[in-house]
Specification:
By secondary structure, this protein is of the alpha/beta class. The protein is built from 15 helices and 20 strands. 33% of the residues lie in helices and 25% in strands.
């Protein structure tokens, strides 16, 4: 059979003997519909909340939080709807848009901004990209129940109404994207993010894809959203081709919970462990760098046999994506040695969570990265193997597992292997 794996804005393809295929795991997507209908229906029927019109009616300063270029939120469609509703309810209100970058760095060109946000930019009073390291732009809202001090962008404290938009899919340690993630890590300070993504939290058994309740990372994010007075969310669910399947609006907890239930219904799969697992990050924009590719790798590991091989396809047009992520693994003699240093407190730096998740996978499985955006030397220094094509990657995997059966997980982040 011809295997097609998302890669950038296209696919990596390779012929595979039918007898080799052990399982093909992908979401059972419903039929996509009209985005305008989904958005209008969600905004007209908010879950667990007053309507957006009512919330905006007396607000003089409105803040909308959105996502950066690593997330496929269809802002060109969603933002105009949000802005129009709030402007109609409160014509005098000023509306600011804050891009939730977390610890990502983004310096977009004018064309990138237009591609991401479209005409919505013309209706804003101010556009700001969050910087977690800019101390002057942060305010301390107090301590969460975990003891973590909540530093957020000061614009949240200045706003009369805080609204966020996003999209929902599984997340490899926060459980799900969307919802409270727009606050923590989205617009939080580096100290708050580091503590939320601590080695102990990452190691918790419930800090995994598809799990929210009992997940210490997600639960702290939810508490942070409440403390930061996030009042209303609009989250969408997209299929593998980034077409809209549904939208959920209203209370950050209740609306997000409904979106999670919908997502699990269609994206949850029973793991069928393979000797070789072929996966990806679902293509552009989530496969822009190796740092993000850990998401697909970690979900691939959830349906791999012991000592299996994971073939992860990612264009990585932006290379590694985070120098600290690279340096932590490259400076360690082995994944196990890195984890020892991390858990002993010897290492405490940004991106340690991404390196931690990857190192845990590498302790159990061999990983082949299929990419033309990072070179062999870089990948190999991080204790993985490199291939420039899926065909080459599969050849390497079969040399390691000559009798190996293959589990296909074409869109790793969107497919959630359920806990057994």
């Amino acid at each position: 059979m011809l295997v097609k794996i998302p890669f950038g804005k296209g696919f990596e393809e390779c012929e595979v003997e039918d007898s080799r295929i052990h399982a093909y795991l992908e979401p059972s997507w419903p039929t996509p519909g009209n985005p305008d209908f989904f958005i209008e229906n969600a905004l007209s029927n908010p879950i667990g909340s007053k309507s957006l019109d009512e919330l905006a009616e007396k607000a003089g300063r409105i803040l909308i939080i959105t996502s950066d270029n690593t997330r496929p939120v269809p802002s060109k469609t969603t933002l105009p709807r949000l802005i129009a509703k709030m402007k109609k309810a409160s014509p005098q209100a000023s509306i600011r848009l804050l891009v939730a970058t977390g610890l990502h760095e983004w310096s977009p060109s004018g064309s990138e901004l237009k591609e991401k946000f479209g005409q919505a930019l013309d209706y804003l009073d101010e556009f700001i990209i969050h910087s977690a390291k800019n101390i002057g732009s942060l305010v301390n809202l107090g301590s969460l129940s975990t003891g973590n001090r909540l530093y957020v962008n000061t614009l949240l404290k200045e706003a009369d109404l805080v609204v966020s938009e996003g999209y929902i899919e599984g997340h490899f340690f926060a459980g799900f994207t969307g919802g409270p993630k727009s606050i923590l890590p989205g617009v939080s300070g580096v100290e708050t993010i580091m503590n939320n993504h601590s080695p102990g939290n990452i190691d918790h058994p419930n800090a995994r894809c598809g799990v929210a309740e009992g997940n210490p990372i997600y639960e702290e994010m939810l508490e942070a959203a409440n403390m930061a007075k996030l009042r209303f969310i609009l989250n969408v669910v997209l299929d593998g081709r980034k077409r809209m399947l549904s939208a959920f609006a209203g209370d950050p907890l209740e609306a997000h919970r409904s979106g999670r239930v919908f997502t699990l219904k269609y994206c949850g799969v029973k793991p069928v462990p393979g000797d070789i697992v072929i996966t990806s990050n679902g293509g552009y924009p989530l496969d822009r760098n190796l740092y993000q590719l850990v998401k697909g790798i970690s979900n691939g590991a959830l349906t791999a046999r012991e000592d299996g091989v994971i073939v992860a396809c990612g264009e990585c047009v932006d290379g590694v994506g985070h120098q600290g992520f690279y340096e932590m693994l490259a400076s360690s003699s082995s994944p196990g040695e890195f984890l020892r240093r991390l858990r002993s407190g010897e290492i405490w730096r940004e991106a340690q969570w991404e390196a931690q998740v990857l190192a845990r996978v590498l302790e159990k499985f061999r990983v082949i990265v299929v990419s033309r955006g990072v070179d062999s030397k870089t990948v190999e220094s991080m204790h993985m193997m490199h291939a420039k094509s899926l065909k080459e990657g599969l050849e390497i995997a079969l040399s390691l597992k000559p009798l190996g059966r293959i589990t296909l997980l074409p869109d790793g982040p969107s497919t959630i292997p359920l806990p057994q």
